[in-house]
Specification:
CATH class: Alpha Beta
Number of helices: 7
Number of domains: 1
Shape: globular
Radius of gyration: 15 Å
Strand order of the largest sheet: 3-2-1-4-5
Structural class: alpha/beta
Distance between the termini: 46 Å
Helix content: 40-55%
Order of helices and strands: EHEHEHEHEHHH
């Protein structure tokens, strides 16, 4: 039986912390889907297709990773691709508390869903998409700074888009 997992998020934008979780999780599963969530009620810096393209750039070279966008419940996507596992990154106790309740709800909605929590690497504890958005909103465009937060492979795309 193929072990298929989903790592879902808004990834607005995709960070080094996200990439670390993808790299580590890809070693546990035959296929890892990175699911770029679409939420029409949320105002994102980057459109879903742009976020998908950025994730694809960041994860290229990891052969068992696929990237998709989906609007709806993550468990619906999991059922669609035959995934049994939902990967979540945990930075702190607040993340754990939140993710634990989400995991219970997902299990109720889709009995085959097992949540797998990966603790953040210490160097990524303070990395978040909201920090990156704040930096970009305040005109930070230097690769030396942004490379501490996002994969180098997507920095130019992010800066170019933010300049629009």
């Amino acid at each position: 039986m193929n072990k298929i997992a989903v790592f879902a998020g808004s990834f607005d934008p995709f960070t080094l912390g996200h990439l670390d979780v993808v790299r580590r999780a890809s070693g546990f599963f035959d296929t890892l889907w990175v699911l770029v969530a679409q939420n029409s009620s949320k105002r994102n810096m980057f459109a879903a297709e742009e976020r998908k393209r950025l994730v694809e750039l960041a994860v290229q070279g990891i052969p068992n990773v696929k990237v998709a966008t989906f609007e709806g419940l993550t468990v619906d996507f999991m059922q669609q691709v035959g995934a049994q596992y939902l990967v979540r990154g945990i930075r702190n106790s607040a993340d754990l508390d939140f993710e634990q309740s989400v995991a219970w709800n997902n299990k109720t909605l889709y009995g085959a869903a097992e949540s797998v929590f990966l603790l953040s690497a210490p160097e990524h504890l303070s990395v978040s998409s909201s920090v990156v958005r704040e930096l970009l909103a305040n005109g930070v465009k230097k690769t030396a700074v942004l490379s501490k937060f996002v994969p180098k492979s997507i920095i130019q795309e992010i800066v170019r888009k933010k300049g629009d």
